[in-house]
Amino acid sequence: MAKSDDSITHGRRTFFKEAFAKLIEPVAEYLDEQISPYFPAEKVILRPPGALSEADFLNTCLHSGNCIDSCPAQAIHPLPNGTPHIDPDYQPCVVCESLACMQACPSGALQKLSVEEIQIGLAVVNYETCLRTEEIDCTYCVDNCPIGDTAIRLDSQERVEVIFAGCVGCGLCQYHCPTAPKSIVIQPLG
């Protein structure tokens, strides 16, 4: 019995797809290992200034959108579940003078804090990709910090140093970092 042309074509196609998959699998695994430290599997969720702990925030937030509407920098956006978040890659918190989001929150999910008390997250530097490690005089992260040298500065070795007690995690440093992937990113606390 002769096989039909469709059956032969399907058999060849299947053979080549399977062979290609076996050939490319080690390459894909290697690339995944190389980029996973820089692109975590789960996207980091940063809440607006004054946010309660994540569990309390989720139980308290009314999804009113008041914080989103009141943000003068348009840095706060809703997640699919309706809760607000900030993505510093697109628009960081600018630590506005009025701290409008906290004032607009009707539920208390965003507590009214002073600038010194805000802790959205903490900037973390990846020195392996930082341009200063390559002796390039980049200071975008330091120059654009709204808090100043009490939050981020160059240390005695001319490396970027984040000051835990001063950094509010607004994300301006991450936003302005020229490397890809970013050499400084905001990580949530806790």
Structure description:
The strands form three sheets. A two-stranded antiparallel sheet has the order 1-2. A two-stranded antiparallel sheet has the order 3-6. It has six helices and six strands, in the order H-H-H-E-E-H-E-H-E-E-H-E. Residues 35-41 have low confidence and may be disordered. The chain starts with a helix and ends with a strand. The chain has helices at residues 5-35, 54-60, 66-70, 100-104, 140-143, 172-176, and strands at residues 76-78, 84-86, 122-125, 152-154, 160-162, 184-187. By secondary structure, the chain is an alpha+beta fold.
| CATH architecture call | 2-Layer Sandwich
Give the integer mean of the pLDDT values.
87
Structural class: alpha+beta
Report the C-alpha radius of gyration, rounded.
23 Å
CATH fold-level name: Alpha-Beta Plaits
Give the N-terminus to C-terminus distance in angstroms: 68 Å
What is the helix fraction of residues, given as a range? Answer: 25-40%
> Which ranges are low-confidence, i.e. pLDDT below 50, for 5 or more consecutive residues?
35-41
Estimated share of beta-strand residues:
5-15%
Largest sheet: 2 strands, antiparallel
Question: What global shape is seen?
Answer: flat
Count of the separate structural domains:
1
Number of strands: 6
